[in-house]
Amino acid sequence: MADFFHEAAHLILHQDQMTHYDFGEPKDNEQYDECEKEADDFMVSQLIHPFTLKEIEQKLILN
Fold first, then answer.
1. Do 60 and 27 meet the contact criterion of CB atoms below 8 Å apart?
2. I need a surface site. Which of 16, 27, 31, 51 has the fewest CB within 10 A?
3. pTM over the 0.85 mark
4. DSSP for 1-46, written as a single string
5. Per residue in 21-62, pLDDT tens?
6. How far is CA 17 from CA 13, 34, 58, in A?
7. Biggest CA-to-CA distance, the chain
8. What is residue 52's DSSP assignment?
9. For residue 48, what are the CA distances in angstroms to 22, 23, 43, 52?
10. Distance between CA atoms of 45 and 48, rounded to whole angstroms?
11. Distance CA 63, CA 57 (A)
């Protein structure tokens, strides 16, 4: 389910910015990193609303 929301985020958030294809292996690329972070944020917001990815990461680090 998480994969679905992550990939849906690319289609919703990045439809005008990039061609839709699998990047394959992670790359050292700022645009790639930013797109992946935005997709992860969207996925978390859909699965565990009202929390953000940053809030979840902070809770995991503190515990």
1. no
2. 16
3. no
4. -HHHHHHHHHHHHSTTTS------S--S-HHHHHHHHHHHHHHHHH
5. 555 555 566 777 888 889 998 888 888 878 888 888 888 886
6. 9, 12, 30
7. 39
8. -
9. 25, 26, 9, 8
10. 6
11. 10
CB 3 within 8 A of CB 39: no
Q: Give the number of other CB atoms < 10 A from CB of residue 44.
A: 21
pLDDT at 19: 53
pLDDT of 60 reads 86
- For 1, 27, 32, the CA distances from 24, given in Å and listed in that order, are 20, 8, 11
Q: Is residue 43 exposed (0-12), middle (13-18) or buried (19+ Cβ within 10 Å)? A: buried
Are 44 and 6 in contact by the 8 Å Cβ rule? The answer is no
